[in-house]
Design brief:
Length: 70
């Protein structure tokens, strides 16, 4: 789907319910991404202040959503 027809269903009719549901899910995912990146930046800053360096992969699990960030 292109951006201009996101409000329409496969038959071309307006479908505001589906559009609003998809929009809400995308907004929640964006909020989760922002939270994760803020945490990651904080971890890197904390390591920098303490003269440490993260060598390996950091794996985190979000307690709110259950999503595992790798």
């Amino acid at each position: 789907m292109t951006a201009k027809d996101d409000r329409k269903n496969a038959e071309g009719y307006n479908d505001p319910t589906a559009y609003n549901a998809i929009k809400n899910v995308e907004q929640e995912q964006d909020k989760d991404d922002v939270r994760f990146h803020q945490l990651l930046n904080t971890l890197f800053s904390l390591c920098e202040l303490a003269d440490f360096h993260i060598e390996g992969r950091v794996v985190l699990k979000d307690k709110r959503t259950g999503k595992v960030w790798r």
